[in-house]
TrEMBL record:
<dbReference type="InterPro" id="IPR027417">
    <property type="entry name" value="P-loop_NTPase"/>
</dbReference>
<dbReference type="Pfam" id="PF13177">
    <property type="entry name" value="DNA_pol3_delta2"/>
</dbReference>
<protein>
    <recommendedName>
        <fullName>DNA polymerase III subunit delta</fullName>
    </recommendedName>
</protein>
<dbReference type="InterPro" id="IPR050238">
    <property type="entry name" value="DNA_Rep/Repair_Clamp_Loader"/>
</dbReference>
<dbReference type="GO" id="GO:0006261">
    <property type="term" value="P:DNA-templated DNA replication"/>
</dbReference>
Length: 299
């Protein structure tokens, strides 16, 4: 699993930081907020995800409801906010994060909010975040990441506990060997983790983002769904490319629904049947835009 690869890389190259956060988790004496500071191409985002995974399940067993929900990117107690295409993190995004923190934990001990690449916070969103950092809700924990700490408001950073993640020397990555089983996961295309980091982890994060999109999609009403579909698919004019993107999306939506069913959400069973019908329609070359219209209305 890609999470295992990330964990091994972090443990090998940041042993002091890993030992520190593990001590925090075991002692259950933590700050209400942390800022993971790395380099522009550093591991701070992955470190925050690692921290979150171990907060949700101290053993990180991979089998419990917390681990299963986390691995499928649908954990109710975790929300990740990030910049899209290097655009500013908006006030609306921060308000959504604040709404997430205002709810009591559903599965774990904390409500977790990760805000990645916080140098992209707009002034309005940074000021809104500052209020939450000053008066955090109970049972909440906020994790910020940045590769450019000089661009983060000092008032924001001063209200967090900072964990520094120095840039890794290239030789550290080049010397990191991956197992035969891990090579199988990446299709045998790469032999060293540095190449995995450059390509496959990008693919993994794209997969994560797509699952977040579909989880949000099924929660919304038809008006908001239509807007989401237009934002995601509206700029693609060529039918073949649109069909390929929709096919990938439906597969990821199928996985989201399967996990929800495993967690006891019965209404997702009917939705899963409808998704499989839409996939069949796509295979039969039914008009892609018609399938999108069905998707908005009937799921």
């Amino acid at each position: 699993m890609p999470e295992d690869l990330i964990g091994k890389l972090l443990a090998e190259n940041y042993p002091r930081q890993i030992a520190y956060v593990q001590k925090l988790i075991k002692s259950d004496i933590m700050s209400h907020s942390y800022c993971f500071v790395g380099s522009a191409e550093g591991a701070q985002n992955d470190f925050a995800i690692y921290f979150a995974a171990h907060l949700l399940c101290h053993k990180n067993c991979g089998q419990c409801k917390n681990c299963q929900a986390f691995q499928n990117n649908i954990h109710l107690d975790l929300k990740v906010i990030r910049s899209l295409n290097n655009q500013a993190i908006s006030l609306k995004q921060i308000q959504e994060g604040q709404k997430h923190l205002s709810v009591s934990p559903q599965l774990g001990q904390y409500r977790l909010l990760i805000i990645q690449d916080t140098e992209f916070l707009s002034l309005a969103s940074a000021n809104a975040l500052l209020k939450t950092l000053e008066e955090p809700p109970k049972k909440s924990l906020i994790m910020l990441t940045t590769g450019r700490p000089d661009q983060l408001l000092k008032t924001v950073r001063s209200r967090t506990a900072t964990i520094i993640l120095p840039k890794l020397p290239t030789k550290n990555l080049l010397n990191y060997q991956i197992s035969t089983e891990e090579q199988k996961w990446i299709g045998g295309r790469f032999q060293r983790l540095v190449k995995l980091t450059a390509k496959n982890l990008d693919d993994f994060h794209t997969w994560q983002q797509d699952k977040e999109f579909w989880l949000e999609f099924i929660k919304n009403d038809t008006v908001q769904r239509e807007k989401m579909v237009n934002d995601r698919f509206g700029s693609i004019k060529e039918n073949r490319s649109l069909g390929k993107l929709l096919s990938t999306g439906l597969t990821n939506l199928e996985e989201v629904l399967q996990t929800l069913i495993q967690n006891g959400e019965e209404k997702s069973t009917k939705r899963l049947e409808l998704i499989r019908i839409l996939k069949t329609m796509l295979d039969d070359n039914v008009n892609v835009k018609m399938i999108l219209d069905y998707l908005i209305v009937i799921i």
